[in-house]
Design brief:
CATH class of the largest domain: Alpha Beta
Number of helices: 15
Number of strands: 14
CATH topology of the largest domain: Nucleotidyltransferase, domain 5
Bound molecules: adenosine monophosphate
Number of domains: 2
Radius of gyration: 21 Å
CATH architecture of the largest domain: 2-Layer Sandwich
Structural class: alpha/beta
Largest sheet: 8 strands, mixed
Order of helices and strands: EEEEEHEEHHEHHHEEEHHHHHEHHHEEH
Strand content: 15-25%
Length: 397
Protein backbone atom coordinates (compact mmCIF):
# COMPACT_ATOMS: atom_id res chain seq x y z
CA UNK A 1 0.00 0.00 0.00
CA UNK A 2 1.46 3.37 -0.96
CA UNK A 3 0.31 6.76 0.27
CA UNK A 4 0.70 9.56 -2.29
CA UNK A 5 0.92 13.15 -1.04
CA UNK A 6 0.56 16.37 -3.00
CA UNK A 7 0.99 19.23 -0.53
CA UNK A 8 0.50 22.95 -0.93
CA UNK A 9 1.17 25.65 1.65
CA UNK A 10 -2.31 25.30 3.19
CA UNK A 11 -3.61 22.11 1.61
CA UNK A 12 -2.73 18.45 1.27
CA UNK A 13 -4.19 16.03 -1.27
CA UNK A 14 -3.72 12.32 -0.67
CA UNK A 15 -4.43 8.93 -2.22
CA UNK A 16 -3.90 5.50 -0.74
CA UNK A 17 -3.09 3.10 -3.58
CA UNK A 18 -3.10 -0.69 -3.44
CA UNK A 19 -0.19 -1.50 -5.73
CA UNK A 20 -1.26 -5.12 -6.30
CA UNK A 21 -4.14 -3.89 -8.44
CA UNK A 22 -2.99 -0.28 -8.79
CA UNK A 23 -6.39 0.70 -7.38
CA UNK A 24 -7.24 3.73 -5.24
CA UNK A 25 -8.54 2.64 -1.82
CA UNK A 26 -9.10 6.14 -0.44
CA UNK A 27 -8.49 9.70 -1.42
CA UNK A 28 -9.02 13.06 0.16
CA UNK A 29 -8.12 16.65 0.70
CA UNK A 30 -7.08 18.53 3.83
CA UNK A 31 -7.62 22.26 3.44
CA UNK A 32 -7.18 25.45 5.43
CA UNK A 33 -4.07 24.12 7.19
CA UNK A 34 -2.88 26.84 9.56
CA UNK A 35 -6.42 28.24 9.71
CA UNK A 36 -9.61 26.43 10.73
CA UNK A 37 -8.92 23.08 9.03
CA UNK A 38 -11.21 20.97 6.87
CA UNK A 39 -10.93 17.40 5.60
CA UNK A 40 -12.88 15.53 2.92
CA UNK A 41 -12.26 11.81 2.57
CA UNK A 42 -13.65 9.34 0.06
CA UNK A 43 -13.58 5.54 -0.20
CA UNK A 44 -15.79 2.92 -1.92
CA UNK A 45 -17.81 2.85 1.30
CA UNK A 46 -18.73 6.52 1.25
CA UNK A 47 -17.64 10.09 1.78
CA UNK A 48 -17.11 12.26 4.85
CA UNK A 49 -16.27 15.92 5.25
CA UNK A 50 -15.84 17.93 8.43
CA UNK A 51 -13.94 20.77 10.07
CA UNK A 52 -11.16 20.03 12.53
CA UNK A 53 -8.20 22.19 13.57
CA UNK A 54 -5.03 21.75 11.51
CA UNK A 55 -2.45 24.11 13.06
CA UNK A 56 0.21 22.47 10.82
CA UNK A 57 0.57 19.74 8.19
CA UNK A 58 1.36 17.30 11.01
CA UNK A 59 -2.19 17.41 12.43
CA UNK A 60 -3.55 16.95 8.90
CA UNK A 61 -1.45 13.76 8.56
CA UNK A 62 -2.65 12.52 11.93
CA UNK A 63 -6.26 13.06 10.90
CA UNK A 64 -5.94 11.33 7.54
CA UNK A 65 -4.20 8.37 9.16
CA UNK A 66 -7.06 8.19 11.68
CA UNK A 67 -9.62 8.14 8.85
CA UNK A 68 -7.66 5.50 6.91
CA UNK A 69 -7.35 3.18 9.91
CA UNK A 70 -10.45 3.70 12.10
CA UNK A 71 -14.19 4.31 11.83
CA UNK A 72 -16.73 3.48 9.14
CA UNK A 73 -14.55 4.49 6.22
CA UNK A 74 -11.38 2.70 7.33
CA UNK A 75 -9.63 0.87 4.50
CA UNK A 76 -6.64 -0.54 6.41
CA UNK A 77 -6.33 -1.80 9.95
CA UNK A 78 -3.07 -0.13 10.87
CA UNK A 79 -0.54 2.34 9.54
CA UNK A 80 1.91 -0.52 9.24
CA UNK A 81 0.11 -1.56 6.06
CA UNK A 82 1.44 1.61 4.40
CA UNK A 83 4.80 0.48 3.07
CA UNK A 84 6.00 3.80 1.62
CA UNK A 85 4.97 7.41 1.04
CA UNK A 86 5.45 9.22 -2.28
CA UNK A 87 5.57 13.02 -2.32
CA UNK A 88 5.08 15.32 -5.27
CA UNK A 89 7.85 17.93 -5.22
CA UNK A 90 7.62 20.77 -7.73
CA UNK A 91 11.25 21.79 -8.24
CA UNK A 92 14.25 19.47 -8.22
CA UNK A 93 16.37 21.86 -10.33
CA UNK A 94 19.47 20.30 -11.92
CA UNK A 95 19.98 18.09 -8.89
CA UNK A 96 17.42 15.41 -9.74
CA UNK A 97 16.60 13.75 -13.04
CA UNK A 98 14.59 10.97 -11.39
CA UNK A 99 12.71 10.24 -8.18
CA UNK A 100 14.75 9.85 -5.01
CA UNK A 101 14.57 8.36 -1.52
CA UNK A 102 14.33 11.21 0.99
CA UNK A 103 17.21 11.51 3.45
CA UNK A 104 18.49 14.43 5.53
CA UNK A 105 20.88 15.27 2.68
CA UNK A 106 18.02 15.25 0.16
CA UNK A 107 15.96 17.54 2.41
CA UNK A 108 18.85 19.99 2.62
CA UNK A 109 19.26 19.85 -1.16
CA UNK A 110 15.53 20.53 -1.59
CA UNK A 111 15.87 23.59 0.63
CA UNK A 112 18.41 24.96 -1.85
CA UNK A 113 15.88 24.44 -4.66
CA UNK A 114 13.26 26.47 -2.77
CA UNK A 115 14.67 29.73 -4.02
CA UNK A 116 13.67 28.65 -7.53
CA UNK A 117 10.11 27.68 -6.46
CA UNK A 118 9.31 29.81 -3.41
CA UNK A 119 5.56 29.18 -3.63
CA UNK A 120 5.77 25.41 -3.89
CA UNK A 121 8.93 23.75 -2.57
CA UNK A 122 8.74 25.05 1.03
CA UNK A 123 5.24 23.52 1.32
CA UNK A 124 6.44 20.22 -0.16
CA UNK A 125 9.37 20.11 2.28
CA UNK A 126 7.15 21.01 5.23
CA UNK A 127 4.81 18.14 4.34
CA UNK A 128 7.68 15.66 3.99
CA UNK A 129 9.04 16.66 7.41
CA UNK A 130 5.58 16.40 9.03
CA UNK A 131 5.03 13.00 7.42
CA UNK A 132 8.40 11.78 8.69
CA UNK A 133 7.29 12.70 12.24
CA UNK A 134 3.99 10.86 11.96
CA UNK A 135 5.35 7.71 10.26
CA UNK A 136 7.90 5.27 11.61
CA UNK A 137 11.40 6.14 10.33
CA UNK A 138 11.54 2.73 8.63
CA UNK A 139 8.80 3.79 6.18
CA UNK A 140 10.55 5.08 3.02
CA UNK A 141 9.61 8.58 1.88
CA UNK A 142 10.19 9.23 -1.82
CA UNK A 143 10.29 12.58 -3.64
CA UNK A 144 8.92 12.66 -7.20
CA UNK A 145 9.71 15.87 -9.07
CA UNK A 146 7.66 17.82 -11.63
CA UNK A 147 10.93 18.90 -13.23
CA UNK A 148 12.79 15.56 -13.38
CA UNK A 149 11.36 14.32 -16.69
CA UNK A 150 12.53 17.52 -18.41
CA UNK A 151 16.15 17.20 -17.30
CA UNK A 152 16.80 15.44 -20.62
CA UNK A 153 16.12 18.68 -22.55
CA UNK A 154 19.34 19.61 -24.39
CA UNK A 155 21.18 22.77 -23.43
CA UNK A 156 20.37 24.64 -26.65
CA UNK A 157 16.66 24.24 -25.76
CA UNK A 158 16.86 25.03 -22.05
CA UNK A 159 19.31 27.93 -21.99
CA UNK A 160 17.99 31.49 -22.21
CA UNK A 161 20.10 33.92 -24.21
CA UNK A 162 21.10 36.03 -21.22
CA UNK A 163 24.72 36.55 -20.11
CA UNK A 164 25.99 33.01 -19.48
CA UNK A 165 27.29 33.97 -16.01
CA UNK A 166 23.69 34.42 -14.86
CA UNK A 167 22.97 30.81 -15.66
CA UNK A 168 26.06 29.80 -13.69
CA UNK A 169 25.29 32.15 -10.79
CA UNK A 170 21.52 31.70 -10.42
CA UNK A 171 20.76 28.59 -12.46
CA UNK A 172 18.35 30.60 -14.60
CA UNK A 173 17.18 28.27 -17.38
CA UNK A 174 14.13 26.41 -18.61
CA UNK A 175 13.16 23.66 -16.15
CA UNK A 176 9.66 22.73 -17.29
CA UNK A 177 6.86 21.38 -15.11
CA UNK A 178 3.99 18.83 -15.22
CA UNK A 179 6.75 16.27 -15.90
CA UNK A 180 4.90 13.48 -14.10
CA UNK A 181 1.82 14.04 -16.26
CA UNK A 182 3.75 14.20 -19.54
CA UNK A 183 5.63 11.02 -18.57
CA UNK A 184 2.45 9.18 -17.54
CA UNK A 185 0.51 9.93 -20.73
CA UNK A 186 3.46 9.20 -23.01
CA UNK A 187 4.08 5.84 -21.31
CA UNK A 188 0.38 5.03 -21.63
CA UNK A 189 0.39 6.11 -25.28
CA UNK A 190 3.11 3.59 -26.04
CA UNK A 191 0.96 0.85 -24.46
CA UNK A 192 -2.16 1.94 -26.35
CA UNK A 193 -0.33 2.17 -29.68
CA UNK A 194 1.60 -1.01 -28.93
CA UNK A 195 4.76 0.72 -30.08
CA UNK A 196 7.88 1.42 -27.99
CA UNK A 197 8.22 5.07 -27.01
CA UNK A 198 11.88 4.86 -28.01
CA UNK A 199 10.70 4.72 -31.63
CA UNK A 200 8.28 7.65 -31.49
CA UNK A 201 8.15 11.43 -31.75
CA UNK A 202 5.28 12.69 -29.61
CA UNK A 203 3.75 16.01 -28.54
CA UNK A 204 1.85 15.87 -25.24
CA UNK A 205 -0.54 18.72 -24.41
CA UNK A 206 -1.42 19.03 -20.71
CA UNK A 207 -4.23 21.59 -20.75
CA UNK A 208 -5.76 22.56 -17.42
CA UNK A 209 -5.74 25.66 -15.25
CA UNK A 210 -2.01 25.49 -15.83
CA UNK A 211 -1.01 24.21 -19.26
CA UNK A 212 2.17 22.94 -20.84
CA UNK A 213 3.14 21.27 -24.10
CA UNK A 214 6.08 18.87 -24.33
CA UNK A 215 8.07 17.44 -27.24
CA UNK A 216 9.08 13.85 -26.48
CA UNK A 217 11.57 12.19 -28.82
CA UNK A 218 12.43 8.55 -28.22
CA UNK A 219 10.81 8.70 -24.77
CA UNK A 220 12.83 11.71 -23.63
CA UNK A 221 11.55 15.23 -23.11
CA UNK A 222 13.46 17.39 -25.61
CA UNK A 223 11.54 20.66 -25.14
CA UNK A 224 8.65 21.98 -23.11
CA UNK A 225 6.66 25.18 -23.05
CA UNK A 226 6.97 26.09 -19.36
CA UNK A 227 10.29 27.55 -18.36
CA UNK A 228 12.15 28.85 -15.33
CA UNK A 229 8.72 28.94 -13.67
CA UNK A 230 5.27 27.67 -14.71
CA UNK A 231 4.46 31.16 -16.04
CA UNK A 232 5.96 30.60 -19.48
CA UNK A 233 4.53 28.93 -22.57
CA UNK A 234 0.94 29.01 -23.73
CA UNK A 235 -1.64 31.35 -22.23
CA UNK A 236 -3.34 29.78 -19.17
CA UNK A 237 -6.31 30.40 -16.89
CA UNK A 238 -4.76 33.38 -15.10
CA UNK A 239 -1.13 33.27 -16.34
CA UNK A 240 -0.03 35.28 -19.36
CA UNK A 241 2.34 32.66 -20.77
CA UNK A 242 5.31 33.82 -22.83
CA UNK A 243 5.33 37.53 -23.68
CA UNK A 244 8.00 39.95 -24.87
CA UNK A 245 10.17 40.38 -21.72
CA UNK A 246 10.40 44.15 -22.37
CA UNK A 247 6.71 44.43 -21.55
CA UNK A 248 7.61 43.62 -17.93
CA UNK A 249 9.99 46.56 -17.38
CA UNK A 250 7.81 48.88 -19.48
CA UNK A 251 4.69 48.14 -17.43
CA UNK A 252 6.51 48.32 -14.11
CA UNK A 253 7.69 51.81 -15.00
CA UNK A 254 4.39 53.02 -16.47
CA UNK A 255 2.21 51.68 -13.65
CA UNK A 256 4.75 52.05 -10.84
CA UNK A 257 4.55 48.37 -9.97
CA UNK A 258 6.82 46.52 -7.55
CA UNK A 259 8.27 43.15 -8.65
CA UNK A 260 5.67 41.41 -6.45
CA UNK A 261 2.80 43.40 -8.01
CA UNK A 262 4.09 42.67 -11.51
CA UNK A 263 4.41 39.00 -10.63
CA UNK A 264 0.81 38.95 -9.37
CA UNK A 265 -0.42 40.69 -12.51
CA UNK A 266 1.21 38.10 -14.77
CA UNK A 267 0.36 35.04 -12.64
CA UNK A 268 -3.08 35.85 -11.27
CA UNK A 269 -4.74 38.54 -13.38
CA UNK A 270 -3.71 37.63 -16.92
CA UNK A 271 -4.33 34.66 -19.21
CA UNK A 272 -7.86 33.83 -20.27
CA UNK A 273 -9.25 35.69 -17.25
CA UNK A 274 -7.33 38.84 -18.15
CA UNK A 275 -8.10 38.76 -21.87
CA UNK A 276 -11.79 37.84 -21.54
CA UNK A 277 -12.65 39.76 -18.38
CA UNK A 278 -15.08 36.85 -17.87
CA UNK A 279 -13.35 33.93 -16.16
CA UNK A 280 -10.24 31.75 -16.04
CA UNK A 281 -12.41 28.65 -16.42
CA UNK A 282 -12.73 27.08 -19.85
CA UNK A 283 -16.38 26.15 -19.36
CA UNK A 284 -17.32 29.76 -18.49
CA UNK A 285 -15.37 31.03 -21.49
CA UNK A 286 -17.10 28.62 -23.85
CA UNK A 287 -20.49 29.56 -22.51
CA UNK A 288 -19.80 33.30 -22.73
CA UNK A 289 -18.35 32.97 -26.24
CA UNK A 290 -21.44 30.99 -27.25
CA UNK A 291 -23.60 33.85 -25.98
CA UNK A 292 -21.68 36.30 -28.16
CA UNK A 293 -19.05 37.66 -25.74
CA UNK A 294 -16.28 38.79 -28.11
CA UNK A 295 -13.45 38.84 -25.59
CA UNK A 296 -14.27 35.34 -24.36
CA UNK A 297 -14.15 34.23 -28.00
CA UNK A 298 -10.81 36.07 -28.41
CA UNK A 299 -9.35 34.24 -25.39
CA UNK A 300 -10.36 30.91 -26.96
CA UNK A 301 -8.95 31.98 -30.34
CA UNK A 302 -5.63 32.78 -28.65
CA UNK A 303 -5.61 29.38 -26.94
CA UNK A 304 -6.35 27.46 -30.14
CA UNK A 305 -3.84 29.41 -32.22
CA UNK A 306 -1.07 28.87 -29.68
CA UNK A 307 -1.83 25.16 -29.47
CA UNK A 308 -1.46 24.76 -33.23
CA UNK A 309 1.72 26.82 -33.15
CA UNK A 310 3.30 24.67 -30.43
CA UNK A 311 2.31 21.35 -32.01
CA UNK A 312 3.69 22.50 -35.38
CA UNK A 313 6.89 23.96 -33.98
CA UNK A 314 7.65 20.90 -31.86
CA UNK A 315 7.08 18.63 -34.87
CA UNK A 316 9.59 20.79 -36.74
CA UNK A 317 12.02 20.76 -33.80
CA UNK A 318 11.89 16.95 -33.66
CA UNK A 319 11.93 16.54 -37.46
CA UNK A 320 8.70 14.53 -37.45
CA UNK A 321 5.64 13.55 -35.49
CA UNK A 322 3.99 10.19 -34.78
CA UNK A 323 1.41 11.09 -32.14
CA UNK A 324 -0.25 13.91 -30.23
CA UNK A 325 -1.82 13.44 -26.79
CA UNK A 326 -4.36 15.67 -25.05
CA UNK A 327 -4.73 15.52 -21.27
CA UNK A 328 -5.64 17.72 -18.25
CA UNK A 329 -9.12 19.10 -17.46
CA UNK A 330 -9.44 20.89 -20.82
CA UNK A 331 -7.56 18.36 -22.93
CA UNK A 332 -9.61 15.47 -21.57
CA UNK A 333 -13.03 17.13 -21.60
CA UNK A 334 -13.20 19.68 -24.40
CA UNK A 335 -13.70 18.22 -27.90
CA UNK A 336 -14.06 21.79 -29.21
CA UNK A 337 -10.55 22.72 -28.04
CA UNK A 338 -9.03 19.53 -29.45
CA UNK A 339 -10.72 20.00 -32.82
CA UNK A 340 -9.62 23.63 -33.05
CA UNK A 341 -6.06 22.72 -31.98
CA UNK A 342 -5.80 20.15 -34.79
CA UNK A 343 -7.52 22.32 -37.42
CA UNK A 344 -5.20 23.10 -40.30
CA UNK A 345 -2.68 20.47 -39.22
CA UNK A 346 -3.91 18.00 -41.85
CA UNK A 347 -0.82 18.92 -43.92
CA UNK A 348 1.29 17.34 -41.14
CA UNK A 349 -0.76 14.14 -41.23
CA UNK A 350 -3.32 14.79 -38.49
CA UNK A 351 -6.75 13.74 -39.76
CA UNK A 352 -9.26 14.07 -36.97
CA UNK A 353 -12.17 11.67 -36.64
CA UNK A 354 -14.72 14.33 -35.72
CA UNK A 355 -17.30 11.91 -34.36
CA UNK A 356 -14.76 10.03 -32.21
CA UNK A 357 -13.46 13.36 -30.92
CA UNK A 358 -16.92 14.73 -30.16
CA UNK A 359 -17.84 11.56 -28.26
CA UNK A 360 -14.73 11.58 -26.08
CA UNK A 361 -14.95 13.18 -22.65
CA UNK A 362 -12.65 12.13 -19.87
CA UNK A 363 -11.78 8.68 -21.24
CA UNK A 364 -8.94 7.15 -23.25
CA UNK A 365 -9.70 7.35 -26.97
CA UNK A 366 -8.08 7.55 -30.37
CA UNK A 367 -9.58 10.62 -32.05
CA UNK A 368 -7.91 10.50 -35.46
CA UNK A 369 -9.35 8.63 -38.43
CA UNK A 370 -7.99 5.23 -39.51
CA UNK A 371 -5.01 5.87 -41.75
CA UNK A 372 -4.18 9.25 -40.17
CA UNK A 373 -0.38 9.45 -40.38
CA UNK A 374 -0.21 11.07 -36.93
CA UNK A 375 -2.40 9.39 -34.32
CA UNK A 376 -4.05 11.73 -31.82
CA UNK A 377 -5.18 10.42 -28.46
CA UNK A 378 -7.04 11.60 -25.39
CA UNK A 379 -5.42 10.07 -22.30
CA UNK A 380 -6.64 11.14 -18.84
CA UNK A 381 -3.58 11.84 -16.74
CA UNK A 382 -2.84 10.00 -13.50
CA UNK A 383 0.07 11.69 -11.76
CA UNK A 384 -0.70 9.97 -8.45
CA UNK A 385 -0.35 6.52 -9.98
CA UNK A 386 3.01 7.41 -11.50
CA UNK A 387 4.18 8.82 -8.14
CA UNK A 388 3.09 5.54 -6.50
CA UNK A 389 4.90 3.45 -9.14
CA UNK A 390 8.10 5.48 -8.74
CA UNK A 391 7.82 5.23 -4.97
CA UNK A 392 7.49 1.46 -5.14
CA UNK A 393 10.53 1.21 -7.39
CA UNK A 394 12.76 3.65 -5.52
CA UNK A 395 11.82 2.11 -2.15
CA UNK A 396 12.66 -1.32 -3.58
CA UNK A 397 9.28 -2.84 -2.70
P1 LIG B 1 -7.35 21.00 -14.36
O1 LIG B 1 -6.48 22.13 -13.90
O2 LIG B 1 -6.60 19.93 -15.09
O3 LIG B 1 -8.23 20.46 -13.26
O4 LIG B 1 -8.36 21.61 -15.45
C1 LIG B 1 -9.26 22.64 -15.14
C2 LIG B 1 -9.81 23.20 -16.44
O5 LIG B 1 -10.52 22.17 -17.14
C3 LIG B 1 -10.80 24.36 -16.22
O6 LIG B 1 -10.52 25.41 -17.12
C4 LIG B 1 -12.12 23.71 -16.58
O7 LIG B 1 -13.05 24.63 -17.10
C5 LIG B 1 -11.72 22.73 -17.65
N1 LIG B 1 -12.76 21.73 -17.86
C6 LIG B 1 -13.21 20.80 -17.00
N2 LIG B 1 -14.27 20.14 -17.54
C7 LIG B 1 -14.49 20.68 -18.77
C8 LIG B 1 -15.42 20.44 -19.82
N3 LIG B 1 -16.35 19.52 -19.71
N4 LIG B 1 -15.33 21.21 -20.94
C9 LIG B 1 -14.41 22.17 -21.05
N5 LIG B 1 -13.49 22.43 -20.09
C10 LIG B 1 -13.53 21.71 -18.97
Amino acid sequence: MILVINAGSSSLKYQLIDMKKESVLAKGLCERIGLTGNISHKTDKGVTEYETPFPTHMEAFQELVKLLTTGDLAVISSMEEISAVGHRVVQGAELYNSSVLVSDDVLSALETCSELAPLHNPANIMAIRACMEVFDPSVPQVAVFDTAFHQSIPKHAYLYSLPYELYEKYKIRRYGFHGTSHRYVSDRLAQLMDCPLSKMKVVTCHLGNGSSITAIDGGKSVDTSMGFTPLAGITMGTRCGSIDPSVVTYLMEKEGLTPKQMDDLMNKKSGYAGVSGVSSDQRDLMQAAGEGNKRAKLALDIQQYQLRKYIGSYAAAMGGLDAVVFTGGIGENSPETREAACKGLEFMGITLDRAANAACRGVEALITAPGSKVQTWVIPTNEELLIARDTKEVAGL
